Amino acid sequence: MLNSSQLKILADNIKSWAKEIGFAHVGICDTDLADEEPKLQEWLDKGYHGEMHYMANHGMMRARPHELQPGCLRVISVRMDYLPPEAGFATNLKDPNLGYISRYAGGRDYHKMMRNRIKKLGDRIASHLQELGEAMPEYRPFVDSAPILERPLADKAGIGWTGKHSLILSRNAGSWFFLGELLINVPLPVDEPVNNECGKCVACIKSCPTNAIVEPYVVDGRRCISYLTIEHQGSIPEEFRPLIGNRIYGCDDCQLVCPVNSEAPLTEEWDFHIRDAIKLPKLVDLFQWTDQEFLTRMQGSAIRRIGHSLWLRNIAIALGNAPFSEEIIQVLKLKRDAHDVSEMVREHIDWALEQQNIKRESELDINRKTLRVIKAVERGLQRDR
Ligand code: B12
Ligand code: SF4
Ligand code: SF4
To answer: What residues sit in the active site (predicted)?
Structure first.
């Protein structure tokens, strides 16, 4: 058994190995999330998870990492930055003929890549302990998909504080990062959480297009554009369609207006750079991709997971929100008549056609809140190129 000073040296080593592997920040915490259980339960009781049944399926296991990985004593929480260069947020949101894709999803899917790297970190710890003549540790890497509360763990491990939009953010890094964890049965020294610096700011709450941040730190998933465009399988309720604007996959607005994000670092991973096919993409072009084109162009991307049908559903809404154009009417009608389009998508196309007809004579109309987000980005976000 390592003594406390050996464990401290090991923790320091882990942090430098993790940086070599590509993680920007690493923190360590214990597995006690008892304080989070009532909040998670309340969130589920209110139905904020919508159709994300996986959120309710494992009971309170999400708040009990030691049940997920028996014997686990510590969680090593890691951060990987994804903000791509040439993010072009304002240019993209401002032009309603372009589709906006959340900047976490412009490049390669992060899940596998991050899990492999976290496993590499675990392997390195294991071989180091074996060199010291210690027993082989038990460890398991997780990224996103496991039933575990990643944000409260990152908060506890000092990666950042929980912002009012419920994401983890840090003074130097903002919030444009993914989280992952290595659960391990080694009693490493733990890190201290950092102070919450949101203060009186409520920019994220005020700017959310669908009022999904129902109170500070609490997101009603069912209202979030990220949920509606990615997780929700069926028809998108009509009340949300005009509010979605041109966001066809995910949403970044609560992060875009966050002052802590003004100096956030760019990703060091080439994999997270936006691929050409979806760099400031024209809605009419995206809408005309066949099923096969969608699968080929989105190979290796998280976007592929939603499938062609939800992709068309989302773009149809954005086309309905775009200014009137004969070309849009034409592509909508063409797709409506295609034999391989589902009834669900057709219903969204009909809605879009109706919107286009209503707007035939009217001026370009970008939602008021979106205009505020664009202004905030143009004013202060250093990284908007
Ligand atoms: C389900 C899910 C969603 C859902 C629900 C969102 C939600 N807020 O829960 C939807 C689809 C809407 C979503 C959207 C997004 N997601 Co998401 N999502 C998840 C997932 C799988 C689970 C989150 C969860 O457990 N929710 C349950 C609720 C109850 O937990 P919570 O929101 O963390 O809430 C806690 C605190 O808010 C706290 N709380 C409550 N009251 C108070 C009061 C105070 C004072 C404090 C301090 C705390 C507090 O208690 C809660 C319970 O502990 C995680 C991965 C994971 N396994 O953790 C990724 C994850 C949270 N998502 C992530 C991302 C990037 C996003 C998006 C930015 C993607 C996008 N651009 O479209 C958006 C952001 C939307 C938002 N503002 O949250 C990242 C966040 C990284 C970060 N920097 O924090 C994660 C961690 C994935 C990853 N591995 O990187 N997501
Ligand atoms: S991602 Fe968009 S819709 Fe979801 S909470 Fe943030 S601003 Fe609101
Ligand atoms: S926008 Fe303001 S309130 Fe929201 S997370 Fe950022 S600092 Fe906190």
So the answer is: 144 (proton donor)
Instruction: Examine the residue annotation and report whether 144 is marked as an active-site residue of this protein.
Output: yes
Tell how far the Cα of 107 is from the centroid of ligand 1, in angstroms. Answer: 21
Q: What is the pLDDT of residues 191-238, one digit of tens each?
A: 999 999 999 999 999 999 999 999 999 999 999 999 999 999 999 999
Sign of CA dihedral 244, 272, 276, 88: positive
Residue ranges for the chain with pLDDT beneath 70: 361, 363-367, 381-385
**301 and 107 Cβ atoms separated by less than 8 Å:** yes
Strands 177-184 and 247-249: unpaired
| Among candidate residues 258, 257, 249, the one with its CA nearest the CA of residue 277 | 249
**What are phi and psi for residue 177, nearest 5 degrees?**
-145, 155
| 8 Å CB contact between 213 and 254 | yes
Question: Which segments within 19-106 are labelled E, that is strand?
Answer: 25-29, 74-81, 100-101
Check if 166 has its Cβ closer than 6 Å to any atom of ligand 3: no
Q: Where are the domains of the chain?
A: 4-83+104-184, 203-380
- Nearest ligand by distance to the CA of 232: 1
168 lines ligand 3 (CB under 6 A): no
CA distance 311 to 155: 34
